[in-house]
Write a structure and sequence with these properties.
This protein is an alpha+beta fold. The protein is about 60% helix and about 15% strand. The chain contains four helices and five strands.
Length: about 160
């Protein structure tokens, strides 16, 4: 048995032991998270499945992975907030695109000005949603990096 074969067998054995704690990239742009969540790219979205059942759809891979981290750590409020903010961001982006098209088709100055005001309001809302979503994603990243180690717990002196 060559050194490469030994290394390959060792890596397979270690991966099967720690599959519940790792995130693996797929060559097709997807991911396998914690041995049970599959994140696959779809048509302008990323689909999270478990046991061939679709759990959620997200706009970016980072958001989908953060949702999986929150679900795996059983932090339900963070999981729900990530999903809600991502859906809101998707709706706001669609609304902004529609308002931009309406503004470009406006015939007179008053209608263009009105469309611009509504567009600007939606853009402010989108910036706020992006900021809130970024906070949630940072929290999920912290939870994943921290792992199960409680760094605030005091150690006992024997």
């Amino acid at each position: 048995m060559t050194r490469e074969q030994k290394l390959h067998r060792w890596a397979q054995r270690e991966i099967t032991h720690h599959i519940d704690n790792i995130i693996l990239d797929d060559w097709q742009g997807g991911m396998l998270a914690f041995g049970r969540y599959e994140i696959q790219p779809g048509d302008q979205e990323f689909v999270v499945t478990r046991d061939r059942e679709t759990l959620a759809r997200f706009t970016t891979r980072r958001v989908a992975l953060s949702w999986c981290v929150a679900d795996n750590k059983r932090i339900w409020d963070l999981r729900q907030r990530i999903e809600m903010l991502d859906q809101r961001r998707r709706r706001l982006n669609q609304d902004i695109d529609a308002r931009k098209r309406a503004q470009s088709r406006a015939s007179d100055w008053f209608r263009r000005s009105l469309a611009q005001d509504k567009l600007q309001n939606r853009q402010y809302q989108l910036a706020e949603v992006n900021w809130e979503l970024e906070k949630c994603l940072s929290r999920a990243k912290y939870l994943q990096l921290r792992g199960s180690y409680n760094e605030t717990a005091r150690t006992r002196i024997p």
